[in-house]
Each structure stands twice: as C-alpha cells, then as structure tokens.
Specification:
The complex is a heterotrimer of chains A (354), B (295) and C (293).
Chain A lengths: L8 E11 L2 E12 L3 E5 L6 H9 L6 E6 L2 E2 L5 H4 L2 E3 L11 H11 L4 H14 L15 H13 L5 E5 L7 H18 L2 E6 L2 H7 L2 E6 L2 E6 L1 H6 L4 H6 L4 E11 L2 E6 L2 E7 L7 E6 L5 E3 L6 E10 L4 E7 L4 E6 L8 E5 L6 E4 L2
Parallel strand pairs in A: 3-8, 3-9, 6-7, 7-8, 13-20
Antiparallel strand pairs in A: 1-2, 1-4, 4-5, 9-10, 11-12, 11-14, 12-13, 14-20, 15-19, 16-17, 16-19, 17-18
Helix pairs in contact in A: 3-4, 3-5, 4-5, 5-6
Chain B lengths: L7 H7 L4 H4 L2 H22 L9 H8 L1 H32 L6 H25 L5 H8 L14 H25 L3 H9 L4 H29 L3 H5 L10 H10 L4 H26 L13
Helix pairs in contact in B: 3-13, 4-5, 5-8, 5-10, 6-8, 8-10, 9-10, 10-13, 12-13
Chain C lengths: L1 H51 L16 H9 L2 H32 L5 H13 L2 H14 L6 H25 L3 H9 L4 H30 L2 H6 L7 H10 L6 H25 L4 H4 L7
The chains are: A alpha+beta (354), B mainly alpha (295), C mainly alpha (293).
C-alpha cells in the first residue's frame, strides 16, 4: 500500500461496463493528476455511478483498464485497491461507534493499534466530531453521519477518495455547509477526489475539472468556467442552465458569429461548432434574455407569467414559434403584453440543428 | 372536575379508544377464549391429577423414565437439526442474496413447508426406504452395501424429515434477514480493505445475530413439537418417542387429560427455556436497525 | 508495456487468484448442497407420484407396469368425497372467519395508538410462536369439554387460533402503508363510515386481504396437528385422513395411500400456485412484507 501513496496519476483507459445488453458505460478514458478534484456530472442513468463503482471495484469492468501510474488496478478486488469511498446513504456500520467506524479501515489493513489510534483521532478532528466519537451512528444527525462517512474514507490515507452523491440526503442548508467542508478536506489531503453528482451547482463549486456524462459517454471535460461559459453540446448547455432553446434558420455566418431567422425576426449568436446545415438551435440562459427595443434583434413573444425576485423580475413568455421562453426583466411587464426578447450575441450559443 | 364537562367518548378517543379501536375486540376476545383460557385451564388441570395431590402429575412425569426421557429424546432430535439447518441456511442465504431471480428457488423450497410433515413422511417412506431410490443410488455407486444403511423407522428418519421441512423454513427466514441488511455496508467494508471472511465476521454476523437468534427459536420450537414424522418415520416406542407423543398418548389413549395437560405444560416450559436462552445470547450483540442508520 | 503491467501485478495477483479459487470452491460447495437438497426433495415427491400409478413396485428402480386404478380404489376406500367436502367446509369457514376477525383487528392496530396495545400485540403474536402441538392439547381438552371436540366446528375453531393472528400480522403493515389521508379525504367529501368502508377502504385493502387469506387457505389445508387433535371420525380433513392411512400402513395397498397422498398434494399445490401469483414465497414464513420499492 505504501507504494500507492506516492503515485502521480490515475488513468482510465477505455473503461466500459455492460448490464446484459445495455451499455451502462462506454469507453471512459480520462487521466487525473494527483490533487485534482473531479466531478462526474450527469442526469440519473448517465453511467456516473457505474463509473465510480468500476473504479472502486464494486462492479467488474466489461472493457478497458484502470491504472495508478503504471500499476494496473482494475484486476484487483475492491479490498486490495485501498481507496476511500463515501456512499450515498453513508453506509455507516450501525453496530459500531463513530470511532470504530472510522478506525475500521486501519484495523482491516492490520495497522498496529499504537499507530492507528492517533490517525483515527486525526480523522475525527478533521471532520470536527471530537464530541460524538463514542456514539453510535443512529444517534447522529444526517450531517454528522456524513462527516463520519468522510472521516472513515480518509482515515486510511487513500490515494483516491470516491464520493457517490454524498450530499443528496441532506437538506439545502447543510448541503452548502458540507460542500465547503468537503473542499477543505480535499485540499488538506492532497489526494484525488472523484465526486459523482447530478447537481451542476455542486459540481461547479467543488471541482477542479468536471466530466459531463450522458448515456454512458463523456460529453465534455473541462474546468467549471469552461463548462459554464462554453458548453460544447446542446445537452451540456441545457444542463448548465441554458434553459431557452430556439430553433431558427441560418441566414449569415461571419467567423463564429451567426445570425438566425426566427419567425420574422433575427437573432445573433456565437457558433460553438461549425453549423453546417440550414437550421440551428440557439441556447440562452434566462438571465441573459431580456426585453429589448422593438427594433432591436431578438424574438417576439407574449408574456405569460411574471414574478418578482427581489432585484429583478423573472418571467415566462410564449414565442411566436410556440417555444416557451424564460427571461429576466428590470421592470414589470404584464401577462399578455407583447415584447421583444434579445441577448448579447456572446451569450447566445448556437448549435447544429437536430 | 374539568373532565366532567368533556364527554366520556371524547376523553376515550383522546387516548385512542374509539369505534375503530373496538374493531380489535372480537379477535382479542376470540384468542382469549381459545388460546389464553385453554392454557390457563390446562395449567390448572395439570395440578388436579387423578390421585388428588397437587403435583401428582409432575411427580409422575419426572419419576417415570418412560415419560421424562422424552424430554431428552426430543432435545436430541430438535437441537442438532435446528443447528444444522441454521448452519446450512446462512451460507446458502448469502449466495442466494446475490441472485437476481431468487423466486424459483424460494418457490421450490416453500414446497415441503406447504405440503407438510405427513406428506413428506409418506414420500420418505418410499424414497428413503430400503428399496427406495436413495438407497438404490448409494448401492449402485458402491457407497453402501444393501441393507447396511437404514434411513427410516429410526432416529435418522425423523432427523431427515425435520431437515426436509425445517431447512426451507430456516432458510427463508434467514434470507429475509440477510436481504434486510443494506448491501452498501458490505461494499463499504470492502473499500476499507476487509476481505470476504472479515466482512462476514465484522459486519454481517453482528447485524444478523438478532435475526438468527429469532430464526433459531422459531425453527427449534417447530422441531421440538414434532409429532407426525416421529410416529410415521421414527421408532415411536423407543428412540424417537418425543414428548408430543407422550402428551398425545396421555390425552387420547389413556384419556388422562390432567396428565396430558401437565406434559403439554412441561413441553411449553422446555421450549420457553431454550428460547429464553437463545434470546439472551442475542443481547450480547448489537440490537437495532440493520439497514444502516437513516437510509 | 503489457509485460510491465503483468510484472507489477504478479505478486499481488498470485495471492488474489488463490483467494479467488477458495471463493469459487466455496460457491460450488454451497450450490452442491442446495442441488442435493432439491434433488432429494423432488425424489420424495416423485416417489409418491410414481408409486400411485404403479401396478407392482418391489425391489426395482421403476414399477412393473402403470395403472390409474389406485385412484378409484383410494377414492372409495378412504371415502375421499366426504373427506374433501369436510376439508373444504373447514378450510372455507376458517378463511372466511379469520378474515372477518383478523382484518378489522389489523385495521384498529394499524391506525390507533392506545393503552395496552403492546399487550394486545403480544396476544396476537403468541399463537404464532407457540407450536400447535403445545397449545393444541389444552385447547382440545377445552373443546371436548364443551362438546365441540370431534365436530367440524371444533376443527374450525382450533384452526382459527393461529390463522386469526396470522391475518392480523400480515395485514398490519399492509394497512399502515395505505395513507390515512385518503380516508380523511373521503370523510371530508362526506362519505359515511359504511360508504367509506365500501368505496374507499375495501378496494384498497382487497389485494392485501386476498394475499393473506390465500396464505391462510394453504396453511389450513396442510395444518395437521390442530385438526388431528380436535377432529372426530366425521370431521377429518384430508391431511389427517392421510396420516391415519399412513399410520395404518399394511392395512391398505401402499399405492392406494400414495394415490390419496397425490390427491392431497394436488389440492394443496393448486392453491399454492394461485397464492404465489399474489405473494412472495418468503411470505409463507416471514409474515411480514418485504420492503416495497
């Protein structure tokens, strides 16, 4: 195990997993450097948990291989991989105290007691559970259980910590708290963390790099800034909060600038890929879509609902082409009112039509 | 008092006693009349022996080897069978837990429970009999000489029949306890470096212990009260003269109801003693939800 | 590169493969045990069926010839028409009455918290934990003293002792998972107690009641001890008649007894197959719902 702690990279090489005839995971190839925090992001059924379980060894891979530096690990059983894992429902051992839970990994690895005890105490301090250490998991709150699960995973000083939607069972406030906590712990350990989530906010705020998965395939890998500003595919864009999608006909191209004819009006946008065909789809965040002057470029729509959100108004409107649009306004517009909605060309991402 | 202004009905309803609660009354009365009362009556009757003394029946039972030895005879059958069933049920349940389609196996195993001891006894007389398929197979493969092994009308006949009907029962109970444990616990232990044997010892065994204790009790109590197979497959006059035979004979052959009641009470008491012993061992282990805290 | 990987992995791999071998042997041993058990189980059943169709079957693997005549003779000798009528009367009454007594009680226990509830639960649990042979003898004594012993009603009453609690314990979790707000909503919309029961509760309860009563049916057909202790010559059910036939083996031809055993088996299995369409086999013993997902 000692050799593992000095490793530099984790490499997934064409990892795939089938369930019967279904490809749950296709050809996952990824290289992760030590110290990186990676989020596997995608809707349920995208293969992100499958990927995590393959790395942990809880599911055998159907194809491909996994390496820590040059050491192949996908042939090893779970217990020999020496990773830490945090489960969605924590999977704390209900019959063991917090301390025994956290010390379990060291005990199984045969670490002598004298050496194990300070490490357990260290882990308990890291997750700030000094006062709860003698309790059984059933006596703890959800957030505390979560901390125990994390402490248990990191106590063995693993080269790799795997987290399977660890915050999904917590309420909103606690989730924000634990997010910072997880980030802090990751930075103090300097290991690789692979974090599975379906919540883009979580991924964006935690990860150094995000891997977006869909239908068992990687759609995009990039930094949170990359993904947020420049999603490569329409589905990634939608996942990143580009809720408005408007189909139009390409009328002119100039570099990556493109103009679309939508109904009777024109919408200017930025091409993400070379849009070769006649039709294209524009994706716009509700935040960027605002009412504009009647003669400016944009889309004609009729306001359907409007609500006040403090500083701004947010509304929904029906475009002349029938699409439902979500927009922001700095003044109140009334349901039934006809308005023109427009956005900066840089905020309108244009993808090839389907 | 202030209570007087509140109608009685309302006050009772506040305690949970209303029309809906009364729905439980018929069933409760029925069981008091046909379960509690007979037990009490039987206990009372057992102290009214024919000779007029208070403990006459019990004295007679414990002084007549033909009677008191039935306790040992029954224990000698029931304990090993129950332990064996449990010992086999646990590893099998652990394999079956991993199966996607458990239903075929569970359906097959529910057969002997449903068919019952009488049919199994009749089938065993054929199948394990001296000319039955089992012995024939052993002889064909040279494992046994003809006439060397006798598997019915002795201790082993009853033993096997208790395995045939008891194992499925024990297994299905065990299976329901095993599948009640969150598999993520085992996965968590595996990621922490625990090998299969250690996972069983440190995670499953402590969590299963309460369930296994209950399974043991239920299986034991069933095996202890065996009647039909002890008569049909055993040697009811000798090695398999179990306590229920003694009780039955007292009640329906000698028409000595007080004695029969006394034997039934002794039977119940021995069962209770074993059950209490098994359940107190359970207290040595963790008791609580096995599904993982808050899932 | 592949060789480098192999070299790296080999020290760990040899230990791993040894353990994998052990694990595989263990799996094989477990399945062998199961298969051995199942083969013998089917052997027992097949021996009964084979024998019931045999002309003569002595000292050989298979009978000398095949016949169905034993069924006719068993039917006549053991008066199976009468026995079957008694069986279905007894079982039908037990099923109906245990539903009528058990379901309302389960409803009360599932919906209300009241003082003494724990004690009541114990009362309903005990008859399932105490084996029939133990409480059957005092019960039979009481029944014989009241004149019910030896009659069909005696058999029915005795059989109800474990089945009423069984229905209650199966139904409580089933009722608990029905949202009480549904009933509250029905009341808000003005349904009276009777209307509530017929239009709202009954349809919701029906699947659970059906499952519980089918299990009661299968268990009662096969319930030997209680019927044996309380039945008279005119109130024997099939399983008790079968016991007496086996007990008096030698009086009748073995094949005749086996024919009767097959009749019993078919009667039980038909209902078992029907029951298994609605319930999980594990429920035959565990008396509790499996976690529904």
């Amino acid at each position: 195990m000692a050799s593992l702690s000095s490793f530099k990279t984790l490499r997934l090489d064409g990892v795939g997993r089938d369930f019967g005839t279904m490809n749950a995971l296709k050809d996952l190839t990824l290289e992760v450097r030590r110290g990186e925090f990676i989020a596997l992001l995608g809707p349920s059924g995208c293969g992100k948990s499958t990927a995590l379980n393959c790395i942990a060894g809880l599911l055998p891979t159907t194809r491909g291989s996994i390496y820590l530096d040059d050491r192949r690990i996908d042939t090893l059983p779970t217990e020999d991989r020496g990773f830490g894992m945090v489960f969605q429902n924590y999977a704390l051992f209900p019959h063991m105290t917090v301390r025994a839970n956290i010390g379990f990994g060291l005990k199984m690895r045969g670490v002598p007691k004298a050496e194990a005890e300070p490490r357990v105490e260290q882990a308990i301090r890291t997750v700030r559970l000094e006062t709860q250490a003698h309790k059984l998991p059933g006596q703890l709150s959800g957030g505390q259980q979560q901390r125990v699960a994390i402490a248990r995973a990191i106590a063995v000083d693993p080269p790799l910590v795997l987290m399977d939607e660890p915050l999904s069972n917590l309420d909103a406030k606690l989730r924000l708290e634990m997010r910072q906590e997880i980030r802090r712990i990751h930075q103090s350990l300097g290991c690789i963390t692979i974090y599975v989530t379906h919540d883009q906010d979580e991924a964006l705020s935690l990860a150094d790099r995000i891997v977006v998965l869909r239908d068992g395939m990687i759609r995009q890998v990039g930094t949170p800034e990359d993904l947020y500003a420049r999603p490569e595919h329409l589905d990634v864009a939608e996942f990143m909060g580009f809720r408005n999608r408007i189909t139009g006909r390409v009328t002119s191209r100039d570099g990556d600038r493109v103009s679309l004819a939508v109904g009777g009006t024109t919408l200017d946008g930025t091409m993400r890929h070379d849009v070769a065909g006649e039709t294209a789809v524009a994706a716009i965040r509700p935040d960027d879509l605002v009412p504009v002057a009647a003669d400016a470029h944009g889309i004609d729509a009729v306001v359907e609902a409007i609500e006040y959100r403090g500083r701004d108004f947010f509304g929904s409107a029906r475009a002349s082409g029938g699409e439902e649009l979500f927009f922001r306004a700095d003044r109140r517009v009334n349901p039934g009112e006809a308005i023109r909605l427009g956005a900066e060309a840089s905020a309108v991402l244009v993808y090839p039509g389907e | 008092m202030a209570d007087a202004s509140i109608p009685l009905r309302t006050r009772l309803a506040a305690k949970g006693l209303d029309g809906v609660t009364l729905l439980a009354l018929p069933a409760a009365l029925f069981l008091i009349a046909l379960f509690i009362y007979p037990f009490g009556y039987g206990l009372w009757l057992s102290f009214r022996p024919k000779d007029g003394s208070l403990f006459g029946n019990y004295v007679k039972f414990f002084s007549d080897p033909f009677l008191y030895e039935t306790i040992g005879t029954t224990l000698k059958l029931a304990l090993p069978v129950t332990l064996m069933n449990l010992l086999f049920a646990v590893p099998v349940a652990f394999r079956v837990r991993l199966m996607k389609n458990q239903r075929l196996l569970t359906t097959i195993l529910v057969l002997p429970i449903t068919l019952g001891t009488v049919l199994v006894a009749e089938g065993m007389l054929n199948y394990f009999g001296p000319q039955g398929w089992f012995i024939r197979t052993l002889v064909t493969f040279g494992i046994a000489e003809p006439g060397q092994i006798k598997l019915v009308n002795n201790y082993w006949g009853v033993f096997i029949s208790l395995v045939i009907t008891g194992f499925p029962f024990t297994f299905l109970l065990t299976l329901s306890y095993v599948t009640g444990i969150d598999p993520a616990l085992e996965q968590a232990a595996a990621t922490l470096g625990a090998r299969a044997a250690a996972r069983f010892r440190t995670i499953y065994l402590p969590l299963l212990a309460p369930g296994l204790a209950i399974t043991f009790c239920l299986s034991f109590v069933q095996a202890y009260s065996v009647l039909p197979s002890a008569v049909l497959l055993g040697a009811p006059a000798g090695p398999t003269r179990v306590i229920s035979i003694a009780a039955y004979q007292a009640a329906f052959e000698q028409y000595d109801r007080p004695m029969a009641s006394a034997i039934a009470m002794i039977m119940g008491f021995v069962q209770l003693a074993v059950v209490v012993a098994a359940l107190s061992m359970r207290n040595l282990f963790y008791r609580g939800p096995a599904a993982g805290a808050k899932g | 590169m592949s060789t480098a990987v192999l070299d790296n992995a080999s020290p760990a791999a040899s230990g791993t493969s040894l353990r994998a071998l052990g694990a595989r042997l263990w799996v094989i041993a477990v399945w062998t045990t199961v298969v051995f058990f199942v083969i013998n189980l089917f052997g027992i059943i097949a021996a009964v069926v084979t024998s019931s169709f045999a002309t003569r079957w002595l000292r050989s693997w298979l009978p000398q010839g095949w016949t169905t005549k034993w069924y006719a003779s068993a039917w006549a000798e053991f008066q199976l028409t009468d026995v079957l009528i008694v069986t279905f009367q007894a079982v039908g009454a037990v099923v109906l009455l245990s539903g009528l007594l058990g379901v309302p009680a389960a409803y009360a226990l599932a919906r209300r918290e009241f003082p003494g509830k724990k004690l009541l639960m114990l009362l309903f649990l005990l008859p399932l934990l105490v084996p029939p042979m133990t409480f059957g003898i005092p019960l039979a004594t009481v029944l014989y003293q009241t004149g019910l012993g030896g009659t069909l009603w005696g058999v029915i009453l005795a059989n109800l002792v474990p089945t009423v609690p069984f229905v209650i314990l199966v139904m409580i979790p089933f009722i608990e998972q029905i949202d009480p707000r549904i009933e509250a909503a029905a009341r808000v919309f003005g349904a009276g107690t009777l209307r509530l029961f017929v239009t709202v509760l009954l349809p919701l309860l029906l699947p659970g009641v059906l499952a519980a009563l089918l299990l009661v049916l299968v268990r009662t057909i096969a319930m030997f001890e209680l019927t044996f202790l309380t039945a008279g010559p005119e109130s024997q059910t099939l399983v008790v008649a079968l016991y007496y036939a086996v007990f008096a083996a030698g009086v009748r031809a073995v094949q005749s007894i086996d024919a009767m055993a097959v009749v019993y088996m078919v009667t039980t299995l038909v209902w078992l197959v029907i029951a298994l369409r609605f319930v999980n086999p594990t429920q035959m013993v565990t008396r509790s719902k499996r976690q529904a997902h």
